[in-house]
Write a structure and sequence with these properties.
This is Transcription factor MYB39. This protein has two domains: 42 residues, Arc Repressor Mutant, subunit A, CATH 1.10.10; 73 residues, Homeodomain-like (Arc Repressor Mutant, subunit A), CATH 1.10.10.60. It contains seven helices and no strands.
Amino acid sequence: PEEDDKLTAYINENGYGNWRSLPKLAGLNRCGKSCRLRWMNYLRPDIRRGEFSDEEESTIVKLHALLGNKWSKIASHLPGRTDNEIKNYWNTHMRKKLLQMGIDPITHEPRTNDLSLDVSQMLAAAIS
């Protein structure tokens, strides 16, 4: 908490950019990477907390089908969500949800040999 306050105060006053020199200038006994990760994943004022909306889930499924596990690229389409948060949400919620619906979470194709299943219908069901 005290270090968070120092880090936040320093960034609010000086901005961020050179993470290597920031800890010393801010009076912190941490490495630059630690400060950067703390700021980017927890302290930034624009971070959204709480449940993902249906729209966010839909965006994650569509972008994962297109980009795979490129969490930073996916996060760039979800303002306020971090790449790590999206990755964790995918691995703890969305993968299971797709599997329960009979969709392979890697290929986004049906996990059954029943050719009468329409992939677009299954994906639509997964994101609704």
